[in-house]
Specification:
5-stranded antiparallel β-sheet, 12 strands, alpha+beta
C-alpha cells in the first residue's frame, strides 16, 4: 500500500537539499575571506662597524714631521669621504714614505682600491694634475722596508702611478679582520701645480 505523503514533506526535503547545496558552495569562499593576518614591522637605523678603516701607520709621525705628509680623517661625512691625504713635494729631491697609512678591516671579503689621477686638458687651466715624474703609491699586506735608498717591494706589493692621469684599480681577493694593507709613497722631484689624486675603497663581503 502506497503511503500518502503529507503536503509539507516534499517541500521540507527540497528546502533541505537546497540549503545543503548553498552551504556547500558558499563555505569555501567564506572560509578564505574570514582568514586575515596583519602585522607591522618597525625599521630603525643602528650604527654598524666600518667595513674598513684608514689610520696613521707606524711611520706616520716621522713622515708628518719631516716631509709634510698628512692624514686628516673625517669623523662623519655624508659623501663617504674618509679623509684627506697631504703629500709634500720637493723641487730637487725624491721623497720616500713607507708604512705611513694602514688600512684595517672589521669584515671579510673582497676589497678593491682605486687610484684616480685627474687629467688636465690643454688650455683648461682648472682642476687637478698629476704629480712629478716617478711618483707612485704602493700597497702591500706586508710592511714595507727601505733597500738601496728606495722602497723595497714585497711579495704582495702593488702600485699605481701618480705621475700620469688615469685610473688604476688594485684587487685584494680576500681580506679578514686580521689583514692590514700598508701604504707607501714615492714622490718624485720636480715642480707641480695643483697636483692631486683620489683613493677610493670598495668592499664586497
Amino acid at each position: 500500500m502506497r503511503r500518502k505523503t503529507k503536503k509539507g514533506e516534499n517541500m521540507n526535503r527540497k528546502i533541505m537539499i537546497l540549503m545543503v547545496a548553498v552551504v556547500a558552495t558558499v563555505l569555501p569562499a567564506v572560509a578564505v575571506a574570514d582568514v586575515m593576518i596583519t602585522g607591522y614591522v618597525n625599521g630603525a637605523g643602528v650604527q654598524a662597524s666600518d667595513a674598513f678603516v684608514v689610520q696613521p701607520g707606524s711611520n706616520y709621525a716621522s713622515a708628518n714631521a719631516s716631509a709634510g705628509f698628512g692624514w686628516h680623517a673625517n669623523k662623519l661625512s655624508e659623501s663617504e669621504i674618509l679623509g684627506t691625504i697631504y703629500l709634500g713635494v720637493m723641487s730637487n729631491e725624491t721623497i720616500y714614505e713607507i708604512n705611513v697609512l694602514d688600512i684595517n678591516f672589521t669584515s671579510s671579503g673582497y676589497f678593491n682600491l682605486t687610484v684616480n689621477v685627474p687629467t688636465i686638458l690643454p688650455g683648461s687651466g682648472t682642476g687637478g694634475s698629476a704629480f712629478p715624474s716617478s711618483s707612485e703609491i704602493y700597497f702591500s699586506t706586508t710592511a714595507f722596508t727601505f733597500s738601496n735608498g728606495a722602497i723595497s717591494p714585497t711579495s704582495s706589493s702593488m702600485e699605481a702611478s701618480l705621475a700620469s692621469g688615469g685610473s688604476t684599480t688594485i684587487n685584494f681577493h680576500h681580506v679578514t679582520s686580521g689583514t692590514t694593507i700598508y701604504v707607501a709613497f714615492e714622490v718624485g722631484a720636480g715642480p707641480y701645480s695643483n697636483a692631486s689624486f683620489s683613493l677610493s675603497g670598495n668592499f664586497a663581503s
